[in-house]
Amino acid sequence: MKKVLLLLVSLYSLWMQAQHSSIQIVPQPVEVRVTDTLQFRLQQEAAICLSETDLEPTGNYLSAYLEQYLGLRTHLQMPAKKQKKGQQMRQEAAITLINLHNDSISGGYRLSITPQGGVTVQGNDAAGVFYGVQTLIQLLPTQAGIVPLLPAVEVTDYPRFAYRGMHLDVVRHFFPVAFIKRYLDYMALHKLNFFHWHLTDDQGWRIQLKCRPELTEVGAYRDGEIVGYYPGKYQPLPYGGYYTQEEVAEVVRYAQERHITVIPEIDIPGHCMAVLATYPAFSTTPDAEQSCARTWGIYNRFNNVLAPTEEVFTFLSDVFTELCSLFPGPYIHLGGDECAKKWWKASESTQQFMREQGLKDEKELQSYFVHHVQEVIQRNGKRAIGWDEVLEGGISKECIIMNWRRPTHGIHALEAGNQTIFACSGWYYLNKKESRLQQEIGPNGPLTLQKVYEFEAVPDTLTAEQLSRVMGVQGCLWTEYTQNTWKAEFNLFPRLAALAESAWSQPAVKSWEEFSKKMVKQIDRYELWGARYNDAFLRQEDIERKR
Ligand code: ACM
How far is the CA of 80 from the centre of ligand 1 (A)? Predict the structure, then answer.
């Protein structure tokens, strides 16, 4: 009898272990506990019950996911008092979404699934409910036509960082609104919450502004671009595009429904050839012909910069004021990177301006520009973000530093008292090829999945106060060699999952070994979502298995 009992107990624990290992959530939650051997079966026509009407977008989101990917129809039940006549017969909810409105960490949630009671998501706030739903999605089948049996679990979870960003350069190559929405969906599925939209650069201006319509009439188009890697071969094929203000509003609304804040970037005072193509008088060589750049990189070669004149500062005030009115989020990115200062050095009128303003070098002039724009942004009730070069000529503590170069620049920003986002190019620029064998992806790299995963931007030498100013991390997708959505997705996946785990999961629950095992299922999800992905990692695994 005792032996039978022992056997049963071991079978039970083996079964529970198997259950546990079949639960593969990315990013890894704080705690996952399997509570029963039985499962909950999600039925057709299941009811999703909301604790308040404000959760309707999240309820609709889940409902749409279940229908689109798994062919499961569900319907929303509003809070009792809001129900319309004839809806009094409330069906027992299969999924209940509750906003606790408590003061705990924003985005935190508890997900509970029991064989009889179904699914309950309790979020600390609306964002928490949304992330609980994302975890629920990861417990669903990765193919339509499979009975959705959900494991009995208790998941307790909250994000490591408040800022979990992803950037997209829509200048070097332009992506339509339909893809921007897809990008936002991908971000949401990985629990990322800030979309950094790189809207202007040397090669084009991609946002319609009513105060300066010429910026898109002229600056949104270039005559052609290079084919192949820099210096490549120039091909005169006109290229362009921009987002109308209606499209911008649509993107902002779509993002909000997914608890994503959009951060627009207008890059100044360098990376401004599209502005100068529109207004040649704004350059340090006003009599020279200006055009949108037709090639990439090597910024000191061609990229002229804004000259410090009254017209230019008025222009910047107008542009950033209108930009602030289009984006409800708290942050505006002003660029500030890779400004080719040689143009200022060579310009007598610029040197005269610097003498008049008591600016000792071109770094201080760059800082003068940044301060001017920062003031406009702050006057409009928002905060400025700048790439880490903005530290060089002096910067106020209110400016958030986005560290794209080596992490030492980010540490320096923290030491200087600024809030910092780590987007270090060596690890988080996802446009790099993942394997040397994938030369067609671009000249830079390789950047393997493991390298992205194992990067820890935050050293343990920081003081608690400095640590409190680390806002989070961000991945970037520059598009010089990413000409289409196929390549964009190929570059993103599965490295976005690695980034997401560094952004969301606590260091104590991170493990490369466990994460790499989860990738097989993650790839199934990408297949379900119709996303292209890079299989370099899987092929590497195959190679190693065969050894
Ligand atoms: C950058 O990569 N120049 C921000």
Answer: 52
